[in-house]
Write a structure and sequence with these properties.
This protein is α+β, with helices and mostly antiparallel strands. Helix content is 61%, strand content 12%. It has a two-stranded antiparallel ribbon. Helix 3 packs across helix 4. The two termini are 15 Å apart.
């Protein structure tokens, strides 16, 4: 159990990231974006789901700061936000070190 507010907040953030990545489609989206940034439409063409479903998953990933979008004209191009995974990688490093 976390001992301080800081570690409790960090623990909640780790759980949020793990929960989001518990959905296999989100993992596939993150893996795809890590290799090559893209739009929701491009992702939907490669996946067995609608563009609307991809947008909803991207919205959740963006809220958790795991991906971010930049505007390219009217297109939103999504990329993995590597810093968003920092809390998870730090937690894994600490758990495996202890």
């Amino acid at each position: 159990m976390p001992k301080s507010r800081a570690t409790a907040a960090e623990f909640r953030r780790v759980l949020k990231v793990l929960n989001l990545l518990g959905h296999s489609l989100r993992v596939v989206i993150v893996q795809r974006l890590a290799r090559n940034p893209g739009t929701a439409g491009e992702l939907a063409r490669e996946l067995p789901v609608t563009r609307t479903a991809v947008v909803q998953h991207l919205k959740r990933l963006e809220e958790a700061e795991l991906v971010h979008a930049t505007l390219d004209g009217k297109r939103r191009v999504y990329r993995v936000n590597r810093r968003g995974f920092g809390v998870l990688t730090e937690w894994i490093a600490r758990v495996t070190r202890d």
